[in-house]
Amino acid sequence: MTGTHFVITNAGMKALPRSSDTTGSAHDRVYKSLRTRIMHGELGPGEALTLRGIGKQYDVSMTPAREAIRRLVAEGALTLSSSGRVATPELSNERIEELASLRALLEPELASRALPRAHLALIDRLEDINLRVSQMVARHDATGYIRMNLEFHRTLYLRAQAPAILAMTETVWLQLGPTMRALYGRLNRSEPPYHHKLIIAALKAGDEPGLRLAVRTDTTKGLRMLKN
């Protein structure tokens, strides 16, 4: 939406036009879109990005494209080589193990904190999301599967009311996004994750140890299969 802003001059207050997409809002739009695409595995490991390409795709100048890339590099979602090449990360075995260990620490804690607030409506919501995970598996839709799988976990973890832990968890997801795409191809799934059913069952039973175990296994078992 185009609007006006005002400046004070010696002659009084003067209206000036304002663009609908300032540099700040353009950068934020590009950042959020790229962040989501990387987290959901729309970009594979080692996929290169250029400022020119991003600018053309999002119809922005180099400045917001550069700022969006800078933020994503800082979060570990992209890598920047000494030659200036920007790409999605290709994770070493050690890095996969490190990120899997972080998921094993953070996500069972979030689930445990969510358990006292796991009312029936939340459980119904998780069952509905898991049904959509099944649909994505049936369609062999890798990015749809990753998106719905993360929505399953995020929906549960929001009930923990632990925003700092959740923010750390989402940063791990972001760094793993392209690798999760590769994992999906290796697993060749034909059904939704078995441990989602165990997570829902543990929530229904109020079983904290069972919930922690199901979440930890669900979030790490596949990743560790990627190690050579």
Protein described:
It is built from 9 helices and 5 strands. It is mostly helical and 228 residues long. It folds into 2 domains: 85 residues, Arc Repressor Mutant, subunit A (Orthogonal Bundle), CATH 1.10.10; 133 residues, Up-down Bundle (Four Helix Bundle (Hemerythrin (Met), subunit A)), CATH 1.20.120. The strands form 2 sheets. A 3-stranded antiparallel beta sheet has the order 3-5-4. α1 crosses α7 and α8 runs antiparallel to α9. The longest helix is centred in the last third of the chain and has 25 residues. The termini are far apart.
List keywords for this structure.
two-stranded antiparallel ribbon, 228 residues, mainly alpha, Four Helix Bundle (Hemerythrin (Met), subunit A), Arc Repressor Mutant, subunit A, globular, 3-stranded antiparallel sheet, 2 domains
Give the N-terminus to C-terminus distance in angstroms.
52 Å
What is the element string, with H for helices and E for strands? EEHEHHEEHHHHHH
Q: Mean pLDDT across all residues, rounded?
A: 87
- Reported CATH architecture of the largest domain: Up-down Bundle
Q: Give the helix level as a range of percent.
A: 55-70%
Q: Please mark out the parts with pLDDT under 50 across 5 or more consecutive residues, or reply none.
A: 1-20
The major sheet is characterized as:
3 strands, antiparallel
CATH topology grouping of the largest domain? Four Helix Bundle (Hemerythrin (Met), subunit A)
Superfamily at the CATH H level of the largest domain? GntR ligand-binding domain-like
Total beta strands: 5
Trace the largest sheet across and list its strands.
3-5-4
Count the DSSP helices.
Answer: 9
CATH top level of the largest domain? Mainly Alpha
